[in-house]
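Incident log, support desk, overnight shift.

02:14 A customer reports that sequence design results differ from what the structure should imply. Their input is reproduced verbatim below. On-call engineer (initials T.W.) acknowledged and began investigating.
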């Protein structure tokens, strides 16, 4: 069984991909641009991919391909309709990054809420030493205890974030398709109106694309902290950037973008250096432990496929 890994570089140089040899003959590519993908998967039985788009035009000549293994939970970069019509199984990895994404989400929100960067810069640039004052308490920060934390998307990550939010003393509300007995579930409009903190953890679908846009932003509190740990396109990125620049929202954090990496024309480029903005390079999923869990799951998905078992199959 021939396995092509298309973008190993996104998984980190410290991950031992030779373990894939347990389940097949492996070719590893650090990255793959659109023009070489078709060639690299032409004789592959299995493709392992993280971010590279796999559409009809690249899959068409991959006549041996029977399994696409995503090194991710989301699969919006794969043409699943084409795969379904052509007998190609698509398997993702679920739950591997819950702790990692939760940790980064909460870290970003704490940074924005507590202004840690500004306080540490005050010390590191020598201002504290030369100030003659024992302490500094500006910019003003507020405790999370007693605040309302709204969670959009209550899957594994959303639930873990809810646990941490409650540990800080926050009241948690959530927007999800089906009610949850242990968390107050509300509509998106109500969540936007009531929340002091909003974190987004919903998959990107035709229903969620652009769901956090101008109308939702108008409903939010002017001092709200908004954090996106889902997919960039779940928000209207231009609307969010304008809201930050105009002071319509208090702070914004994000780890995901509709264009990755984003260029100078992208809305996030305009706000990346503002003190009330915390942008990270799509790293929340990637703790060492999470990446190893991901690789283990990919190997198990391939092993199951070889045994005729559909494991983690989304198509």
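02:41 Re-run completed on a clean worker. Output:
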């Amino acid at each position: 069984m021939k396995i092509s890994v298309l973008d190993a570089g996104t998984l980190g140089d410290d991950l031992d991909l030779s373990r894939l040899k347990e389940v097949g003959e492996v070719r590893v590519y650090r990255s793959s641009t659109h023009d070489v993908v078709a060639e690299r998967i032409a004789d592959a039985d299995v493709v392992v991919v993280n971010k590279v788009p796999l559409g009809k035009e690249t899959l068409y000549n991959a006549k041996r391909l029977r399994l696409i293994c995503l090194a991710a939970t989301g699969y919006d970069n794969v043409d699943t309709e084409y795969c379904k019509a052509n007998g190609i199984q698509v398997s993702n990895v679920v739950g591997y990054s819950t702790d990692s994404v939760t940790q980064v989400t909460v870290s970003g929100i704490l940074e924005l809420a507590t202004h840690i960067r500004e306080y540490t810069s005050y010390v590191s640039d020598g201002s504290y030493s030369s100030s003659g004052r024992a302490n500094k308490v500006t910019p003003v920060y507020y405790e999370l205890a007693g605040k309302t934390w709204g969670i959009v998307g209550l899957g594994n990550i959303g639930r873990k974030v809810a646990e941490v939010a409650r540990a800080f003393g926050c009241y948690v509300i959530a927007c999800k398709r089906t009610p949850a007995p242990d968390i107050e579930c509300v509509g998106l409009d109500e969540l936007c109106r009531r929340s002091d903190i909003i974190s987004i953890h919903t998959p990107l679908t035709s229903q969620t694309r652009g769901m956090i846009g101008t109308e939702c932003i108008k409903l939010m509190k002017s001092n709200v902290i908004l954090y996106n740990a889902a997919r960039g396109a779940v928000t209207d990125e231009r609307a969010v950037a304008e809201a930050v620049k105009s002071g319509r929202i208090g702070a914004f954090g994000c780890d995901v973008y509709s264009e990755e990496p984003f260029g100078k024309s992208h809305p996030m480029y305009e706000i990346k250096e503002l003190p009330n903005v915390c942008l990270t390079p799509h790293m929340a999923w990637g703790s060492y432990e999470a990446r190893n869990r991901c690789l283990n799951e990919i190997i198990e998905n391939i092993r199951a496929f070889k045994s005729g078992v559909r494991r983690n199959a989304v198509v």
